[in-house]
Amino acid sequence: MQMIENSTLNVTRPRIVFFELHFEEHKTQLTFAFWFFITIIAKIVFVRFERIKRVLPDSALLLVLGSIFGGILYAIFHDKHDIYLKPEWFFHFFLPPIALDAGYFMRNNEFFKNIGAITTYAVIGTLWNTAAIGLTLYAFRNYFDGCPSPISLFLFATLISAVDPVAVICVFEEIHVNQMLYICVFGESLLNDAVTIVLIHTMKAIANAPEDLQWNHYFIGLLAFFCVSIGGILVGGLWAVLTGIVTKLSKDVSIVQPITCVLFPYLAYLIAESLGLSGILAIVVCGMGMKQYIMGNISDQSLVTVDYFIKTLSSSCEAVIFVFLGLSAVSAVVIHRDFDVVFILITLTACFAYRFIGVGVLTYLLNKRRTERIGFVDQFIMGYGGIRGAVCYGLVMSLDPKKVICRDMLSTTTIIVIIFTVFVQGGTMGKLVTYLNVRLEKERKGTLFEKLNDRACRHSMGAFECLVGRRGDYWLKVKVDRINENYVKPVIMVKHNQMGMSIVDFNQKLQTNEAVDYVKKHGTIAGMAEALSDMDNLL
């Protein structure tokens, strides 16, 4: 009897475990880390083998990489694991660093100089594309499988009209097109986010509303657009000022300054999204505004840290997004298999044609008042550069499948449109730019004379606009600069340099760069003083 009791005690006695797998607990973190690791290796391979990059841009190559991994995972697990780019991942984690990078490194002068054209393309152009694509799909809806409802078609037309800022950055930065062309296309892709979100919310409200809609419902929808856009801009501006104040107060605790410069713009994005405003506009405006303030508050080492961290994080997120889009393509094409060839062909044709029509008509109207006219070649590149990306896919996957029954068909079509624009339009953009002899952005260092001349031209144009009674882009920029220099910067900056001091600082930086270049070229400091003196005489 005692032996039985002892054996029972031995069986039930707990074991001491020294090694145990915890994969499920860390599955999400490992997944993100794995895909970031894959994209790093892919970037290294793309740089090593330049012949690959001559054929396709990085975005297309990363799409292919994601599709290959998606095919491997499908072959192993079949349809047990449906891997795709989840909307919350994209909008909460991947998109904010890219938008911050865009705003932080954007040339503010070029942006404000073209703000009229950017707003016109973003607002009127997006409304035109949405209406034209929606009406075209509605006219052919009897030929589609399942005959989708009119509201579903207009929802799809709204989201597919959004030019993606991530895709535009990837393609246009590789080609180095001229600054005016880049700012117009990229600025449009940023601002049409607000238009697209408002239109989608309006469409959803119409779908849930009673049939007897009144005119005031449409007026409220129009008012919502201005609230979303202006609200996002105000939130971004507020957090830019807060970033300047905090970096000023933390001048003796420099270790927290770099993280402040990254955290505060992200908070601006989250707060704007939580309030139903445009998060992209908020974080872009915050990045554009804070860079001029933090330069006078943080050390050179911290500034370099902020620059590299933002650029590295943005580049990594761009790469991971396109890898995930490749995975999503396999999920949509192989697993869901909800194809409608007629719907896909009509959507592609409508997106391509109406983009060119909209750009052509709007540019014709803009050129009547623009000082620097947008040429025909630049118009063609702007029309051809309407690349769709993860924004479209994130929006279509955020639709409720219970209310939008044909969501799988819409998501499959969205993936096909993204693949077409990234591979066909993005892949041939470089050759087209060379063939059409598009003016490129020259990589050269500015001179002190150019800086002074640029400032004098801006003030002169602002004065001329004021004399003729016109409140144009130059007048607005001069007014904003004056308020910023006289009232904002003295309060939130430690080292507030007036306009005269900024010229001195620029000259010192220019001479430092020339000295470094001289040593690299000649390997000695002998003769450097004479060389720098000659440069000063030229200036």
UniProtKB/TrEMBL annotation:
Principal location class: membrane
Q: Where, subcellularly, is it found? A: Membrane
Gene Ontology molecular functions: potassium:proton antiporter activity; sodium:proton antiporter activity
Cation/H+ exchanger transmembrane domain residues are 38-433
Q: Where are the transmembrane segments?
A: 30-47, 59-77, 89-106, 118-139, 151-172, 218-246, 266-287, 308-335, 341-364, 376-396, 416-438
Indicate what this protein is called per its UniProt record. Answer: Sodium/hydrogen exchanger
Under PANTHER family, the record lists: SODIUM/HYDROGEN EXCHANGER, SODIUM_HYDROGEN EXCHANGER
Keywords attached to this entry: Antiport, Ion transport, Membrane, Sodium, Sodium transport, Transmembrane, Transmembrane helix, Transport
Tell me which GO cellular component terms the UniProt record holds. Answer: plasma membrane
Q: InterPro entries of this UniProt entry?
A: Cation/H_exchanger_CPA1, Cation/H_exchanger_TM, NaH_exchanger
Species for this entry: Globodera rostochiensis
Bilayer topology term: Multi-pass membrane protein
- To which protein family does this belong? Belongs to the monovalent cation:proton antiporter 1 (CPA1) transporter (TC 2.A.36) family.
Q: Does the keyword Transport apply?
A: yes
Q: Any keyword Transmembrane?
A: yes
